[in-house]
Amino acid sequence: MNVLLAAVDASAAAQPVLDVARELARLLGTEVETVHVAEPNEPDVVRTVHALVEERDAAGLVVGARGAPGGASPAGHVTTELVQTLDVPVAVVPPQARPRPIQRVLVGVEGNGESPALQRVVANLRGSSLEIVALHVFEPDRLPLFGDQPVLETEAWADEFERRALRGTTGTVRTEARVGVPPHAIRRAAAELDSDLVVVAWHRALHGGHGRVVRALLEDADLPVLLIPLATR
User: Fold this and answer.
1) Tens digit of pLDDT for each residue in 110-145?
2) What are the Cα distances from residue 162, in Å, to 4, 53, 63, 115?
């Protein structure tokens, strides 16, 4: 298994980054390789991390969201650039994240159950006590229309959703549904379910109105967020 890179600096985020990297490496069955980049400017840091990811054929990167609570939003300049340009999964860790074992993973999925994030998580993470929760958020104006027997039809929808979401996987996943604005509903569900990690797939764009869910998650999260790029090598 390829190494998992952990990018650290002298900020308050360094220890949480290492804690999360060790937990992810445990679940991936790989090793952590710590990277401390001391270049003075952002382009040099980004180029160096890109080169290391390629050179080490890294399975992913773990990086701090920002140097201190209440800092840059949605994340620091280097982190924002890395998550939009790397083609491997990137775990973004807020500085206030407390050390905890990763036992429950909340994965955001599309309504049709076709979820790259879910497929990647179930296929790669290992752990006898690991629980994966597939969460779909219905926006109020996109609620499914059921007929005269809403309970039975809702159950039928959930069964079909789970069948499609788990197609081709061997892991155990349970499904949850919420109604609301996706980023807010995801944060609430993560708290209600006492999740240790949030996982979403995305198109690696935070500009021009894109990436609203990821932007909101990175702005306010007190849990690590694992971003799965939809175009990966």
Assistant:
1) 655 556 777 777 777 776 678 889 888 877 765 555
2) 30, 34, 32, 11
